[in-house]
Amino acid sequence: MEILYIIPARGGSKGLPGKNIKLLAGKPMIAYSILAALNCKNNGVVLVSTDDDAIAAVSKSLGAEVPF
Question: Domain span at residue 10?
C-alpha cells in the first residue's frame, strides 16, 4: 500500500506574504514539511496543493508533486 502525503500551501498570506517560500535557516519554509514527508519510513507520494506558481516551483524542485 502506498501512502499519500498532502501538504496544502496557500499563496495569499495576509500576515506574512510569501511565507511558504521565505528562507528559514537557509531553506524555504515549505521545505521542512516536504522533506519530513519524503524522509518518512513509509515511502509514498508527497503532493503539494497550491495556488501559487512560486510555491509550486520550489515544491517540485524539492521532489514533491504538484498536480494543478
Answer: 3-61
The answer to the question of residue 27 being in a domain is yes
Number of domains, the chain: 1
Q: Which residues are registered as beta bridge partners of 47?
A: 6, 65
Let me know the angle formed at the C-alpha of 56 by 66 and 46, rounded to the nearest 5 degrees: 40
Q: Read off the pTM.
A: 0.90
How, if at all, do strands 44-50 and 3-9 pair? parallel
Q: In Å, how far from its chain's centre is CA 19?
A: 12
Tens of pLDDT, residues 14-68: 888 899 999 999 999 999 999 999 999 888 999 999 999 999 999 999 999 999 7
Query: Is residue 66 included in any domain, yes or no?
Result: no
Q: How many residues does the chain have?
A: 68
